[in-house]
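ARCHIVE CARD
Drawer: 12
Card no.: 0347
Subject: one protein chain, sequence and derived structure
Cross-reference: see card 0346
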Amino acid sequence: MSGILVIAEHRQGQLRPVSAELIGAAREAGGERVTVAVLGATPAAFVDALKLAGVDEIVTVQTASDAFDPDTYQAVAQALIEARQPSLVLLPHTIDTLGYAAPLAVKGNYGFTTDAFGLARDGEGWIATRSGYGQKVNMEIEFPERATVVVTVRPGAFKAPDAAGTPDISAFDAPAVTPRSAHVSFEEPAASGDVDIVGADFIMSIGRGIGEETNVEQFRELAGSLGATLGCSRPIADSGWLPKAHQVGQSGKTAAACKLYIAMGISGSVQHMAGMKHVENIIAVNTDPEASIFSIAKYGIVGDIFDIAEELRGHF
């Protein structure tokens, strides 16, 4: 078996960003033909958005509705796997996909893991990396004696391709499915006023270097003055100084769209830096010249974050 099958996901007529990220994941894995399947009543409407570099073929599958149905997605995915014989199937780690991913893997006797943020292949087969034990360790999951592996991929873990591609376009007949549920309506959740780390293009994050909780507010105000989204390291979130939604890292959010990241008083744990892996321009400020954060920073300042913050306030 060979090739990578990606199942795209859309909602309310829009392709979800993680679908393009799955293509990026398949492209990074390298060396395999990449097929992207899109389901719906009007699947052709999503084809142009899926014409990205790294895609060899887009398969449209016409179903009864554009609304998500787990039974339909499971049946179509199973039929596609049987027809195309891929070695790897990539699905988004979302509430929708979790409704059918595990049953799909069990029924087909496929290898399976969820919430992966790393993919690799050796002579024995695919290896997926995910967190474990309360996000305290990273685990490499292998799938011995499994010809096909199904993996759900963490949103934001991979960068979507920037360039367009020229894939082949084909159609696939959906198997007959009798859904056990009916889509009634979709309601956006009420705005929480929280942050969007994954979609932010400019982030200023704070770490233990701020010293105490009372100092959070001045950095929140500074981030606002700079036009940045306020992020933080895990110790800040674990201490309750900022909500979990602000946390950048493997156990938080990945700065997938960030163009500029300012790390204030962050030493740079492996877990935190994994959440910054897509960022090209990183500015690190720390009093410790040996801080790990400097190893990935484009610009580094060895100094007191409060002094640097005061300088920035004088210019913005």
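Annotation on reverse: The domain at 202-313 is CATH 3.40.50.1220 (Rossmann fold). The chain has eight helices and 17 strands.
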